[in-house]
Design goal:
The chain is of the alpha/beta class. It is 33% helix and 15% strand. The chain has helices at 2-22, 49-57, 70-79, 108-113, 180-194, 219-222, 231-256, 293-296, 323-331, 346-351, 403-408, 410-430, 438-452, 457-471, 510-524; strands at 25-31, 59-65, 118-124, 143-147, 158-159, 162-163, 166-167, 170-171, 202-207, 263-269, 300-303, 313-320, 359-365, 370-375, 378-382, 490-494. Helix 5 runs parallel beside helix 7 and helix 13 crosses helix 14.
Length: 553
């Protein structure tokens, strides 16, 4: 009897270890604001040798989509639901908003943890932090190393007057190096090194801050690209190089600790690049925060040394950010809710089969009265697609050198000014205590100085400097006529034949347009009203020792 019980115990241990070692480790790498034209497999001028090698040896997705902005995309990845089913379709979670991921929707970390995975988040969260229950370690992650909000200084880890960096729930002040991209790569490698892969499979969500603004990078990276004359693009390209090096650090750890034989690596972005700063989605139309392809179609690849039957090719099928939840959970041996918006894409990923997805929702925003859907080859846009509606090549030289660049961005420039004024007024009404960037006031002063200076060389130099700085934010545009930058209220495109969205066929396809409008109406029936609460003074970091902290909702 004693021997039998020992044999039974041994068998159970063998089964447990076998289960842990057969379920694949999942390394999910999410870049921030990475544009279609910001990766080497789409743009040979970009240098990212580590990521390029993985992409070309794995499977590159040619039609991988996310939401137009950060928080909605992250919500879709975390839950497998479209943001308009989460009440997050309106936009990002701001520091001072008591806004968060719905608690009734399990996260991908919670689902994988229930399947025996160790779960870790490194980097950016941006899904709410007004209450501890809305932070990573309370939403399924065993550990968290990073920041709660949407953006910050890469070195000081401060923004809007508050410090934002955590190790689990504790405020953390890094001692060895401070540049966030390097810190996150180092922490990810540390997790791999200390994890016991024989006891449980690993889910590591590496959510880089790069290449989101502010544009910051150590000179050792930007100096590699002196041939790029546009300062912003040179820094931005250096940020890409720093991220590539951080991924190399992670890969080295995977190789050293024998993970590669049973690991899936995913690399993608949360939305398109910010072309108005330094990113590029060329030749796609639009930019981050728009419903155009440039704002939603993102560079994506998957890699595995052993798990794929077919590698080294470009998959043409439709993929959406919501699909990662279903794909990972099914791969882990679990089951998902039939109400999820995401599709299990594992057979498409691992064997090159056709994607099970035939349609998806770009977004439905009932507040802005804008929406876009994709059905087959066709894309319907209703309402405004967003602020930037042009085609923007990468900035490799100072934009002010070109008169056409000024003309091409004239409409967007004025629109940006109006939007900034409206946003600042809204802030003043809801939170008069709030921090305001002095750059805006300096910009106003500098512009006035140019007009007022008559012979005053100091004021003239200040004004000229600001105008050069301001103009350098904008690159040369393809389409010069201002009127053409204001799109009609309803648009229809054949994305397969017209991926650059240059030919609106709504007027020529009235029957198809009617069908697409009916389809959009069907989607709208399940819309959860947008949750976009006003600013709260209780969020002010002065209440928490100068640190952005939970506890105010």
């Amino acid at each position: 009897m004693f021997e039998y019980s020992h044999l039974l115990l041994l068998a159970c241990l063998v089964i447990k270890v076998s289960s842990a070692t057969t379920k694949p480790n999942i390394i999910f790498i999410l870049a921030d604001d990475l544009g279609w034209n910001d990766v080497s497999w789409n743009n040979p001028d970009v240098q990212m040798p580590t990521l390029d090698k993985l992409a070309r040896k794995g499977v590159i997705f040619n039609s991988s989509y996310t939401q137009p902005t950060c928080s909605p995309s992250r919500g879709a990845i975390m839950t497998g639901y479209y943001p308009y089913h989460l009440g997050m379709q309106k936009g990002i979670v701001r520091y001072y908003q008591p806004k968060h991921l719905p608690e009734d929707k399990p996260t991908i970390a919670e689902a994988l943890r229930s399947e025996g995975y160790a779960t870790h988040l490194v980097g950016k969260w941006h899904l709410g932090f007004c209450n501890w229950n809305h932070t990573p370690t309370y939403r399924g992650f065993d550990s968290f190393y990073g920041f709660y909000s949407g953006a910050q200084d890469y070195y000081t880890h401060k923004h809007y007057g508050g410090y934002d960096f955590r190790y689990n729930t504790s405020v953390h002040h890094p001692t060895k190096g401070r540049y966030s991209t390097t810190l996150f790569g180092r922490r990810a490698a540390e997790i791999i090194a200390t994890h016991d892969r024989t006891s449980s499979p690993l889910f590591l969500f590496l959510s880089f801050q790069g290449v989101h603004s502010p544009l910051q990078v150590p000179k050792e990276y930007s100096q590699q690209f002196e041939h790029i004359k546009n300062t912003n693009r040179k820094i931005y390209t250096g940020m890409l190089a720093a991220m590539d090096e951080a991924v190399e650090r992670v890969l080295n750890a995977l190789r050293q600790y024998k993970y590669m034989d049973n690991t899936l690596i995913v690399f993608t972005s949360d939305n398109g690049g910010a072309s108005y700063l330094a990113g590029s989605n060329w030749p796609l139309r639009g930019t981050k925060a728009t419903l155009w392809e440039g704002g939603t179609r993102v560079p994506t690849f998957v890699y595995s040394k052993t798990l794929f039957k077919k590698t080294g090719y470009v998959h043409p099928g439709l993929f959406h950010a919501t699909d990662w939840f279903s794909t990972f959970v099914r791969l882990a041996g679990g089951s998902t809710s039939p109400f999820l918006d995401g599709k299990d894409q594992w057979l498409a990923i691992s064997r090159g089969w056709h994607s099970p997805r035939r349609e998806f929702v770009y977004n439905i925003d009932e507040v802005k009265k804008s929406a876009a859907i994709r059905v087959g080859d066709y894309k319907l846009i209703v309402g405004s697609p967003g602020r930037y509606n042009n085609w923007y090549p990468a900035k490799t030289r100072p934009a002010c050198n070109s008169r056409e660049a000024k003309q091409g961005y004239r409409y967007e420039d004025r629109q940006l000014v109006r939007d900034n004024i409206a946003e600042r007024n809204a802030f003043n009404k809801t939170s008069g205590w709030w921090f305001t960037s002095p750059v805006k006031y300096f910009g106003s002063f500098a512009s006035s100085a140019v007009r007022a200076a008559t012979g005053n060389s100091v004021l003239q130099k200040i004004g000229n400097w600001y105008n050069r700085y301001r103009c350098d934010r904008f690159m040369e545009a393809r389409q010069m006529e201002e009127a053409s930058l204001v799109p009609p209220k309803v648009q229809l495109y054949n994305i397969k034949n017209d991926p650059l969205e240059k030919h609106d066929i709504a007027a020529r396809k009235p029957v198809l347009l009617k069908k697409m409008m009916r389809k959009l109406k069907e989607y709208k029936r399940t819309l959860v009203p947008s949750y976009n609460p006003p600013a709260s003074k209780a969020a002010n970091p002065k209440h928490y020792g100068g640190v952005w902290s939970p506890g105010w909702c």
